[in-house]
Amino acid sequence: MVTEKEIWNYLEEVFDPEIPVLxxxxxxxxxxxxxxxxxxxxxxxxxxxxxxxxxxxxEEIIAKLNExxxxxxxxDLTLSPAWSTDWITESGKQKLLEYGIAPxxxxxxxxxxxxxxxxxxxxxxxSVNTRMVSLFGSTACKSQYQCNDCLEPFDYFxxxx
Amino acid sequence: xxxxxALYEYVLRLAxxxxxxxxxxxxxxGHGPILEEDIALTNLALDLIGQATSLLNxxxxxxxxxxxxxxxxxxxxxxxxxxxxLVEQTNGDFGKTIMxxxxxxxxxxxxxxxxxxxxxxxxxxxAEKSLKETKYHLKHTSEWxxxxxDGTEESHNRIQESLDALWKYTxxxxxxxxxxxxxxxxxxxxxxxxxxxxxxxxxxxxxxxxTLTIPSNNxxxxxxxxxxxxxxxxxxxxxxxxxxxxxxxxxx
Lengths: 161, 252
Fold this sequence. Notes:
The complex is a heterodimer of chains A (161) and B (252).
Chain A: H1 4-11, H2 24-27, E1 30-36, E2 39-44, H3 54-67, E3 72-77, H4 90-99, E4 101-102, E5 130-134, E6 142-147, E7 153-157
Parallel strand pairs in A: 2-3, 4-7
Antiparallel strand pairs in A: 1-2, 5-6, 6-7
Chain B: H1 3-26, H2 35-63, H3 69-74, H4 85-88, H5 94-115, H6 121-149, H7 153-166, H8 178-185, H9 192-209, H10 231-240, H11 242-246
């Protein structure tokens, strides 16, 4: 008989389709896992409302758990509480950095309209002499930055709170 | 008007604002003035369409006639869309797109701030989620309004013209009818006066920094909330609904 803990371990083998270095557990999108007899219910939450990866994540969770011998799997989507970058695990943040994406920094309140962009260290050379190129990047969750010292452009996983 | 019916109508209005503006902004995909702005506008469109999906699915549940978000998005006629006239206006140049988005974001942010405490939990959850995205949108568009307004003579004149052209549609943002009074009484939505005060403050602050002038002409154009639209919407729907109209019930 499979346990909820084992299911959490299996979910560590499901990767985010857009940032394949993170598992869905690292990303913090798994809200709960529930086992009732042999039926498994997983509740997930989107990072952004229009995140195009959610459908694929749902299918990959079902495929992974089926592969582990759990045949009855349902995946539900919840919006509240809304996902925050605080839910990315510490090991997830470390993996992002090693992959070349700067992890979210603590930022001042965004309700202040014209706050300075956060100081984000370059994931390559660690210099803090970097600049924001654009608030929006290759996916909804990232901004574009460039390092003024090593000149490398890089993605910043922007803070969402 | 009963509560359920009013809530359906209200959610549909919010949803149509997101859907129609999201579609409009998505028309920039591949046509942005610079790569970073092309990507930024596409991200904005994606957030709006994502919000529209959540809202339309909820509207479908409230209606209870078996229509889902896709059916509501793609299979209604023009008069059944309840979006603001502001959001259906054509993109024009980059400045007009930014001005239209700014006038809208300055309304959406305080609205979602209040709606996240709605007594309707489903609506509150959608608002809580959407607020985080909308804060980024407002920051981005405010910065651009200032950059263009307080930029060169050319950029200043062009964005001022956009403001002049769009201003007549802004009064409708605070349109009120039975739908609103029923829901305000149930603590489901905030009063439009509360939202208008915050909207006005943001608009004044940003336009002042941008050295732009609010038009003195007080002509008002309304109708979207009742389904009366400008010429622009029909063309948009023809494009947006093309696949479902040409190949009914197709999926992929």
